[in-house]
Automatic annotation (TrEMBL), chain A:
Lineage: Eukaryota, Metazoa, Chordata, Craniata, Vertebrata
Source superkingdom: Eukaryota
Protein name: Ras-related protein Rab-39B
InterPro entries: P-loop_NTPase (IPR027417), Rab (IPR050227), Small_GTP-bd (IPR005225), Small_GTPase (IPR001806)
Organism whose genome encodes this protein: Carassius auratus (Goldfish)
Gene3D superfamilies attached to this UniProt entry: P-loop containing nucleotide triphosphate hydrolases (3.40.50.300)
Entry annotated with the keyword GTP-binding: yes
Database matches in SMART domains: RAB, RAN, RAS, RHO
Keywords associated with the record: GTP-binding, Nucleotide-binding
Pfam families (UniProt xref): Ras
TrEMBL record, chain B:
Start and end residues of each stretch annotated as Disordered: 111-140
Superkingdom, natural source: Eukaryota
Keyword field: GTPase activation, Phosphoprotein
Organism: Carassius auratus (Goldfish)
Listed Gene3D superfamilies: putative rabgap domain of human tbc1 domain family member 14 like domains, Ypt/Rab-GAP domain of gyp1p, domain 1, Ypt/Rab-GAP domain of gyp1p, domain 3
Annotated function: May act as a GTPase-activating protein for Rab family protein(s).
Domain Rab-GAP TBC: 222-446
Name of the featured protein: TBC1 domain family member 22B-like isoform X1
Amino acid sequence: MQVPWNFRFGIVILGDSSVGKSSLLHRYTEGTFDESRQSPLGIDFKVSNMYFDPDVVIKLLLWDTAGQERFRSICKSYMRNSVGCILMFDVSQRQTFDRVRSWQQEVLDYVKPNPMFFVLVGHKCDLAVGRQVRKSEGDALAKKLNMLAYLEVSTKENINVKETFETLTRGIYNLFQQGKIPTRGDWQGLTVGATVQKESPVTKKSACCNCG
Amino acid sequence: MATDNRIHFWRRNPKVPGSLQPVYGAQHPPLDPRRHRLLKDAPKVNSLNTKSKKPSTFHEFARSTNDAWDIDDEEDDGIFSLKQLSSSPVQSRSMPQTPCLKIIKTPEDTEALPPSLDRQEPISTNPIQDRLDMGSGPANGRVVKSSSEAQLNVNAARNTLQKQQSLPVRPVIPLVARISDQNASGAPPMMVREKTRLDKFKQLLASPNTDLEELRKHSWSGIPREVRPVTWRLLSGYLPANRERRELVLQRKREEYFGFIEQYYHSRTDENHRDTYRQIHIDIPRTNPLIPLFQQPLVQEVFERILFIWAIRHPASGYVQGINDLVTPFFVVFLSEFVEEDVENFEMASLPLDTQRNIEADSFWCMSKLLDGIQDNYTFAQPGIQNKVKALEELVSRIDEDVHLHFLKCEVEYLQFAFRWMNNLLMRELPLRCTIRLWDTYQAESEGFSHFHLYVCSAFLIKWRKEILSMVDFQSLLMLLQNLPTIHWGNEEVGLLLAEAYRLKYMFADAPSHYKR
């Protein structure tokens, strides 16, 4: 392992086709917005390290999935090895919002008995016209479905991108510290790595830091 | 499970061989003249054929799978046997009974393979390689580059080479342009070999009944650009071998396609088709996003119609992301018939309406033929892909244990990278010009898209073994596998890949326990 990490979280990004899953991830890991990208097929993978509480390094394994129904069986194996989920819809496409509930249910059914923690993302919030889902609706749904948060995000305008990943990671981290997430040997969703030390052994921090 | 799977993939249910055929798809192992003649002389008599009763495993395999290519032209066998006998230089030499076994003995022995590479040399399409060759001078023992682009590229090449030294990033190469890079017709000095090759194709194509076996044999190592469109139509089974019937068939099929459009295309807004159309509509702008040609509304509409009609005619799979990419090579190849040079920036609207329609219909039918063979890749739960990925794992574990164990160690699963390789026939891993070259062979090889592809994937994976083994953890390994550096690839790399795939297929296709540890 190149960078010692204290925790490793599997994170999966889900939602209907073309709600902007890949572009959100691309913005987060590469820092750019690229409209002309090919749709992912099956699964794409990225890695990012997040630095907390001066000495905690959390490695995020980020899985970007294809939204089309037919790929669901492929994507399931990634859900199983994830602890967090960024569930996205497009605020300008009402039907993508309507399907959030069934997405969540499907994921929870599938990962049982392991836990999965969600943030709900209303994407393309920069669109001034054509919005079909109000912010209050997103807030209410996230609360109702027991999600960690609802965020309105624009990848294009770089609004709330970093915050999405931080909110989810922080939320999971806190829950873990409170003893609310059990770890299992055969579950890769949340893995404990190097022991957290007061004197940080990590020297290469800045190189991979996306949130510093 | 693994065992079932292996059996499914490596050991084909032996069909009753209705027609004995010589092995094509591989020039590398020269055909045994005696065996070949025997086959040719008595194509329908199999019960008395003692030699074919104990064929090599490869022959058995090829015979049991070649039927897929029998496109109602079996009656031609007799006619062409003579021609084949006289035209093949191999025939006069005395060859051992089972030449394949003798020639390809060990994994290290690749000497049997170069002939095909050699043959495709003159049609190099690799601008970078061309450029590099310029630098190293013509005295490298190869056929002198005859492509006019090569000359045009000299200056660019020098500049590029200079730049390359300072820039870490490779220069951007046109993805489509020089797709094939053979001389466009009329271009200056065509090398003798290249010309002979082209002549051979022309001769085959001009004959009253094109000998499809011969055509496949020659196509395996690459099809010259100017005859590629018609050759693809023939190899895919869209055009009949009988020359007189072709025009009629084309006309009928094209009319049939536009009949579908008239009858069904309006239904894209209907309740039951709305989602299909929506998905297609979303994906089309994301198809080849970097190539201007595909951003033209006219071209996007062509793709939408083709995909929608295909999807509603194939409800078991419907439209699945990735299928959109599979239209591209056909479209580009059929379009290239009417474009002198820069396909990438060609304005589709400048073509007569009839021509546009013909390209569309032909693309539809050829894509349909392709998908017929791999539809289980796209049905519910995608069993075709799941099985192929498992078969890939199985194969790699036998041919390169180091790589396989390294995957295990890094906890990388084959599905994590190879899903896309199967779902998209490596199109996302290779530049488009390479895909087109690859498809020359896939269409020449029996079950090329559905079966041979597996060996190509294996060869492709092993090609990167050094890089793979140098990655120390899950993340770096997976990142490598998702972004393999093939941007500079051209015909030569694809040729090598195919030769290696052929070798693997020969060694492992019908030998489940071969090399098993």
